[in-house]
Amino acid sequence: MNNQPWIVLGLLALAACGPAEWMVDDDDTTEPAVDDDDATEPPVDDDDVLDDDDVADDDDSAAPDPGCAADEVPVGYLCLPAELSEWNLQVDPADLAMIKDDQWEDIFIPCTLSADGVDYGACQVRLRGGSSRDWPKRSFRVEFIEDADHPGYQRKINLRAEYNDRTYMRNFLAHKAFKKLTDLPVPRIRYLRLAINGDDYGLFTEVERIGGKFLERNARDREAAMYEGEGSEGTGALMPLPNEAAYRERYPKKTGDDADYSDLIGLIEDQLAADWADGGSARLEQAFHLDGYISYMATMLLLQNEDHVTNNFFLSFQNGAWETYPWDMDMSFGCQYDEAAHDSFCDDYEADGYWENGTIWPGDDLDDCWCNLPMHLVQQTPLLSAQFQQRACDLMTDPWWTIEGPALVDQLGSYLEPHVATDTHDAIDSLGDFADYRAEITQFFGQREAYLRSEMECF
Fold first, then answer.
1. pLDDT tens across 91-104, in order?
2. What backbone phi and psi angles, to 5 degrees, belong to 367?
3. What is the pTM of this model?
4. Angle (deg, nearest 10), helices 373-380 and 290-303
């Protein structure tokens, strides 16, 4: 909790393609297009580093008593550690000052990392994120060499400050919602406490990186093609681009043959764009695991996440068709992008935001649109649009939405409160403010549902 006056630094005036288009909060932009983080590691069971709530969260029945271990406490239907893991990152202060001064570059500096008294030795670290690099409390990417012991989900570790979200909950809750409401692979997420050179730096989340090991852990083909949708200037997502170089810049390839972009280009130009030109959806229905994609869209709709339209998604070709994985969902539960301020800070709360996200409307400038071609095709095809809306209506009757989610907000807030109270680097002025921000998320469930039911026909 920061009791000192704070100022969010003015963000760079970057060109945007609709809400948050330039604010890609992924951190692999300067790595080789094919992420071989996992390619040469021997296959391992990722559950050797268990998610803090795996025991309860893998049980879709979500029993009231999740049966937690001795070192865990029940938080709603989850089991979370009674004591948060404490990590200490050691770096040269001059190196740290240097990468903060040059914050928009992905510059690695040497580090060592220990967790809960265990020294994991040498690593390298850099800043991560998009707009978050301009906030006082920074997020980090820590990397270990292959086969090294490490305390993370994987050897490339994403540590998020969650500075823009003064509840610390939105990204965490969104991941849990996807895990409960869909059958899609979802990254793991957990809370921890980070110190830098022994000085407490506050509450963080670790979010599992999406790569080959993630695919393998979720019973997917780790060698299959997978692309990341990154925000950029100009056209929206999965829209035709002028040449292969543009596709490579817009969609870094994370797994599969980096020399071959023909699958992605064929999907967009020969299937999606052809359906668009014909006014149909037959090719889309063949190209995607459509039921999963509709669930993806419907869950994002409930969470009011709009950042997924043009970026912050992964697309992978699995079992003969494409599927989409969620990523970076801090802009949800009423936290919206402020286009005028170029800011995703959760200052303004709303639950009745525009719902037909990604649609290409007559007169839209296709060189600068907030649009997504498969989303457009779903919403403009009467049968698919009806399925999409009905899926959202069905999800609003799911126990997670009606009972477990709102209860989790309350109990997670109580669980996090002691850590917020002692975090001097966050943007929260008082525990009273923290309670008010949490109340907004609790209110969101009912207000969002009322808005959506007024906009859609739920049967």
1. 999 999 999 999 88
2. -85, -5
3. 0.88
4. 90
Q: Are 75 and 408 in contact (CB under 8 A)?
A: yes
Phi-psi label, residue 197: left if phi above 0, alpha if psi -120 to 50, beta otherwise = left
Cβ neighbourhood burial of 429 (10 Å; 0-12, 13-18, 19+): middle
Q: Angle at the Cα of 216 (from 405 to 398), degrees rounded to 5?
A: 20
What digits encode the pLDDT tens for the residues 146-173?
A: 999 999 999 999 999 999 999 999 999 9
- What is the rounded distance in angstroms from the CA atom of residue 177 to the CA atom of residue 332? 11
Strand, helix or coil for residue 387? helix
Measured CA to CA, the distance from residue 204 to residue 426 in angstroms comes to 10
- Which backbone phi and psi does 202 adopt, to 5 degrees? 105, -170
* E-assigned strand segments in 222-355: 226-229, 253-255, 313-318, 321-326
d(CA 300, CA 369): 19
Residues 6+ apart with CB under 8 A from 279: none
Q: Which pairing describes strands 85-90 and 189-196: parallel, antiparallel, or unpaired? A: parallel
Match 């997917």 to its residue by tokens.
Answer: 220
Token pair, residue 28, equals: 């692999």
Report d(CA 229, CA 242) in Å as an integer: 17
